[in-house]
Amino acid sequence: TFSLLSPGKMSRDRALRKQQQLNNLVAAVEKLAKPGDVIVDFCSGGGHVGIVIAHMLPLCQVVLIENKELSLMRAKDRSDELGLNNISFIQANLDYFNGTFNIGVALHACGVATDMVIEHCIKAQAAFVISPCCYGFIQNTVKFKYPRSHQFKEILSYKEHMILCRFADQTAVHLPPERKLIGKQCMGLVDLDRAWAAEGCNYSVQVTSMEPESCSPKNNMLVGTPV
């Protein structure tokens, strides 16, 4: 799928890992999508995810949302090169998006952005496919309080949850294996909290790992569907 797109200035190794990440997300979206669905790629960047989805699912409408004008222009150029006519672009902070859609997708939505995307999807009663990132940036905001789920709130204080999030970021390739394993387990717990919070809003949620796990240190994937 990724071969459709020019990887730009990426090394071959990084381009391969990006391709593997995309394959995981796109495969999950393909399982959920029906003809006529509107699929929103949140924090779309240069459009790699949304463009591949638009190409693979010509009977669906794909909307890319990105607040950086340059990234959106690059995505539009890529889409024009491929002659896609089922794709549209919105330059906005994802907080301002207020449309109806069927599936929300986000690759490496940083920190609280993952929870914002989940919230948008729940509000629209849409399915979601999200790969979180930057767990260390998760913190209480005006809109979100952590932990998210009542199950976690019963056993973890906010401060303890923050420590969990800091450890969840300890997954970099150069770290010792035992440290990375703890990081991966903490990532799983942070995302389980998110999954249980969504399940409290009548969703069924799976937390899985991308394959192969080496495609990214941040290789968790949350797939949620309204029940």
UniProtKB/TrEMBL annotation:
Keywords tagged on the record: Cytoplasm
Compartments where found: Cytoplasm
SUPFAM superfamilies named in the record: S-adenosyl-L-methionine-dependent methyltransferases
Taxonomic superkingdom: Eukaryota
Coiled coil: none
Gene Ontology CC annotation, any one: cytoplasm
Every Methyltransferase domain range: 17-139
Similarity section: Belongs to the GSTCD family.
Protein name as it appears in the record: Glutathione S-transferase C-terminal domain-containing protein
Protein source organism: Callipepla squamata (Scaled quail)
